[in-house]
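Researcher: Structure prediction, please.
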Amino acid sequence: MTMPPPALAGPEPDPAAREPAPRPLRLPVAVVLAVAAGAALLLALPPYDLWWLSPAGVALLAAAAHRRRMRAGFGLGLLAGLVLFFPLLEWTRIAAGWLPFVMLGVFQALYLGVLGVASAWVSPLVDRWRASWPVVTGLLWVLQEALRDRAPFGGFPWGRLAFSQGDAPVLRLAAYGGAPLVTFAVAAAGGALVACAWRRWRRPNLPVVGGFAVAAGLLTAGPAAVPLPGAGTAPATTTVAIVQGNVPRLGLDFNAQRRAVLDNHVNGTLQLAAEVADGRQKQPGLVVWPENSSDIDPLRNADAAAQIQRAADAVKAPILVGTLQRTDVAGENYNVGILWNPGTGPDHAQQYAKRHPVPFAEYMPLRSIARLVSDKVDLVATMLPGDKPGVVDTGAAVLGDVICFEVAYDEIVRDTVTGGAQILAVQTNNATFNEAEARQQLAMVRLRAVEHGREALMVSTVGVSGFVDASGTVHGATGFNTAAVVVRDMALGGPRTLATRSGNRPEVVIVVLAVAALVGVLPLRRRRTDIGNGGEKVSEER
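Model: Predicted structure follows.
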């Protein structure tokens, strides 16, 4: 048979067209992996603190969504999110009831659903360039958290990968790029794990698999060698006392116990003053009370003011008091920390009003619409936001004060350090939650201390309270639902970290790269579709 001349021969087939179309894992297997991913991410966070499960959870979800259709990727991500967020946020049910708890859990899980879509979308990219899997996974996780941290109504950053790493070497990276860099490293380690374990490459290459395993190990353990800014220096110190007065009983009736709670904190401070007078305790330069330690506005109630003044005079130190300041409009107030000096009383120039009240708990967005869902909407008062960072000069130290959930938000904490804070202080009230929520907050304080190179404290009405040094180590942690007073010498200031100086720029760079990766996959997906239309069936399970 005569062969046609070369000019008439058809084009050489694309090698990729001769390959069997890539297949995902079987759907039942992917569902199991998604459930396991949510469970691993949950157990990595407080109160379980199995930090090494975070990369595993990332890897499991990436494997489940790889090479799937968008719809299946969304469902698998949503499933992982439900397994993670419902147990993680169970404490919100105690304070808000079942409906808000379910709504919050589902909404947070939707973000992981979107992450599942993105993971499915980038499958052609990581199939073509295996080495990109760790980087792309890290980019997508930071993008997901950047969105979840901001929307809607200012976002809800609970459950970030970075907040699971309190005991991990990777926590040190917070000093260089904040929580986004920590999340990127954890997720990239997960991407390296899934790249290492994925068994359906066309041409398995043991050196490549070994390289991914080494990369995962370096991302997980390597940061232990990263130096912390200011390590080895000996800055000035001041003695700080935190008073955890406790409440008569936990639960939603906390605000009905206002005078008892104030008395508990006064009595705890008086006991501290007695121990100082007897030489059994050091004289503090500053005492810090928690959020809502005086839920009676002492600027409008002379009796409450007299009790706080009595405590400050006895301990011979200023007290940062957490209180509510009412306005002349019924139902409106500010959540504040105000400095109360011995002898002279409240210093109106040194106070901080919470900048980020919690939507649906401290104020009600879309109140008229919300009334259609619940008849308890109008029980939520209107907490007005403050407009200045929480920089409070106590004389003994310049505090960077944030209140309760604000510790989860990057910029709110950073603003205090750029404003001159020498110590970070978190005033919180966990009386309407549980110990798990308190330990989740303390993990955030640990990250913030490393991120900004500042020693920190968290003081709660019921616990957990404690001090955190600039390496993220906790000192003097109290129990839950108990009264306690803890005193510690705290270092003042230190050099500003790269994370403090750079602000949100590392996150912006990562987000831009993530968007570029998502857009850059489009030609590869079109090519895969063209191959499928040319005769090869693109085999993706739903």
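Model: Residues 241-361+378-492 form a domain with the Nitrilase/N-carbamoyl-D-aminoacid amidohydrolase fold (CATH 3.60.110.10).
Researcher: Thanks, that helps.
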